[in-house]
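Sample log: Isoamylase early set domain-containing protein.
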Amino acid sequence: MLTKRFFKTKDEAEVTFEHAFPDASSVALVGDFTDWQPVEMKFSKKEGVYKVKQRLPVDQQFSYKYLLDGELWQNDHAADAYVPNGLGGDNSLVNTARCD
């Protein structure tokens, strides 16, 4: 699930990336907004999902994927869209356009 929160006084959105991976022992968010460096996600026992928040500039689109256990790449079924990644697959896409 992607949850977006927009600020009235800032040109950025706080995006919460949230996904259940029941068989993974670690999950990282990796995207062009992290220079494709893994950002560890925290597991919420209460909700049974991995979560992380990122602040991103508004009115842009960003590619990302999840990295499970340091070796398995996974797309987000709740992504705003998908784009070809040039490696024979797709990346997830998050759009930070304000929806007024």
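Observation: The beta strands are 2-6, 12-19, 27-31, 39-40, 42-44, 49-57, 61-68, 72-74, 81-84, 90-95.
Observation: The domain at 2-95 is CATH 2.60.40.10 (Immunoglobulin-like).
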